[in-house]
Amino acid sequence: MMILEFTFLIWLLITLLVIIFLFHFLYHTSLFRIITRFSTLLVNQFHIYNSYKIPQYNDHSQENPLFRKIFTYIKSLPSLEDSDLAVLFSGDEPGDILVSLDSNGCVSDTFLHAEVTWMYNKCDNIDRGGEVVLKIKAKDKKRVLVPYIQHIYKVVDEIEQKKKELRVYLNRFSGENGVNNINPLWRSFPFVNPSSFDNIVLDNEVKSKVKNDLELFLKSKHYYNKIGRVWKRSYLLYGGSGTGKSTFVAAMAKFLSYDLYDIDLSKPFDGSGLKMLLLQTTRKSLILIENLDWYLMGNSNGVSLSTILNFMDGVVSSCGEERVMVFTMNCKNHIDPLVIRPGRVDVHIHFPFCDFNGFKGLALSHLGCKEHKLFSQVEDLIQQNGPRLSPAEISEIMISHRSSPSRAIKTIIKALQSDDGKPPRYPSGQAVGVLRARVSPFESEDGKPINCVEQQLNVSGKDQVLEELDGESKGKRDGYYAIREIQKMYGRLRLKNGSRGESFDLS
What we know:
Elements: H1 2-27, H2 30-44, E1 49-55, H3 65-75, E2 86-90, E3 97-101, E4 106-111, E5 114-122, E6 130-137, H4 141-163, E7 167-171, E8 186-190, H5 204-218, H6 221-226, E9 232-238, H7 245-256, E10 259-262, H8 271-279, E11 285-289, H9 292-296, H10 305-313, E12 323-329, E13 347-350, H11 356-367, H12 375-385, H13 391-400, H14 405-417, E14 434-438, E15 454-458, H15 474-497, E16 503-506
Parallel strand pairs: 7-10, 9-12, 9-13, 10-11, 11-12, 13-16
Antiparallel strand pairs: 1-6, 2-3, 4-5, 5-6, 7-8, 14-15, 14-16
């Protein structure tokens, strides 16, 4: 009897060891996954499921905000690492690995003791983007669906608050392949730029005016709805190369905490393609077109004036709110006035070449010099010859000689003294720009405002500038003054027939 019991225990132990071995073997092979998946499918046959599609774009090609939030939520799920179809990306920090769901991949989640499944499908037509599908048991739908979506919003808001990562978006070529990307018309990259309103060299009062205007815009949703206007704001930044326009745009985006959409008009697409780009931007975005005057002079791939005008204030531009549009130019005097009329451009900001105040600001930030014995020579040269160097040119000289402020300033003096045939950027003794905030659209015949507040702010602390092109002849200058007189006369005539829109003007 004892022998039988001992034999039974031996066989029982052997059986347990075999079962453990088989389980261990199956767990580390695909057989376990096959058996698990088969059993899950078998159990699912006894349940009724509801499926909900969340498309990336609606029928009007506008992005569905819920899709972006859900995709962000899916990427935060720990179970994503167990998905059969997942893709890996390198993160912004060294050693960071990001996991994302690939096309036709599935991932499971649990909420309120109910299991839900997410699947991502990529559409063959890149204009339609993709879609995520939520699969949930019918018996759990009423209890779970709405609280689950609210839970997703809450989690994503927390993720975005912790992350606070701005991104810059670049438009693709029409033939560029974007099948594996969430947004086929845009490529995105982390927006890493140290520029801010605190460290850019610009008159403090000008920066204050712009910051106040942006802050007022952020708080004006109900006001814009009340007056029947789309909640957006547009800026024109104009000035020569190297005057800091692009740096200022980066500072604006960081101040607003808006993603930056940089549209390159040199890439081949038609008017409908430009509209599609606009439709596929998100709320809280800054949309940038640089060197607009260059494209308006016919140097683009089929982008016509009417296409630009429709982009700026056409019907499609009204299909989205909480946007800021920024356009940059080298000179605004030689483009069609329709492009920069009130309503299309709300704020005009002039970026001048470097006067003495700008030079002192650069010397303080780049060289740590508040005063220097050579400053007087720089001031005299700028007063005599006018501004000849851009802030970028002076900045590069200072960076190259940052270990020796005296050598840097002497190099700048030589550059200002050099007679290379380059005329002064602006007429001698005139200022580099004026910020003009016009609150009232009416003026009297002597040019004084009627029942309005008109503020003027000198960027350089001098008089208003009259911008001229390099190498312009006296005849052209006389023609320019004649045009100015005609514009004044036209303004008086227009006063009798209608009013002008609100504008900020630094010119």
